[in-house]
Write a structure and sequence with these properties.
This protein is α/β, with parallel strands linked by helices and 111 residues long. It has 5 helices and 3 strands. It has helices spanning 2-8, 20-29, 46-55, 73-82, 94-110, and strands spanning 34-38, 63-69, 86-90.
Length: 111
């Protein structure tokens, strides 16, 4: 679904990683414009990844969207407090994903 949304929005290139730990390695290797993370990545959770990104001065401006399961009602609040730029509540549709990405990217254009 993510590839479809990014393709329709003509965004790329896209890199996928299989875990939160792998994401931390990639984040340190190069710069990114946008991170999209799942809440339940392992062994590093999405919220931990978000907090790491926000704590690093070199990464502070990177846009971060996190996907939070409906079964984690406190997750939305925690993600917002940690500095998420966008929030998706699972299950979500392709349209919802695209709208969230557009909204986050538009905020940068308005600044």
């Amino acid at each position: 679904m993510l590839d479809a949304a990014l393709g329709q929005l003509q965004l790329g290139p896209v890199e996928h990683v299989g875990s939160g730990a792998a994401a931390l390695v990639k984040i340190r290797e190069r710069s990114y414009d946008l991170f999209i993370s799942d809440w339940f990545t392992k062994p590093v959770r999405g919220l931990q990844l978000l907090k790491f990104v926000r704590a690093e001065p070199a990464l502070a401006s990177v846009r971060f969207i996190i996907s939070v399961p409906l079964s984690e009602p406190s997750g939305e609040v925690a993600a917002k407090e940690a500095g998420a730029d966008g929030l998706l509540v699972e299950p979500h549709s392709l349209e919802s994903l695209m709208a969230t990405i557009r909204s986050v990217l538009r905020r940068d254009e308005q600044v």
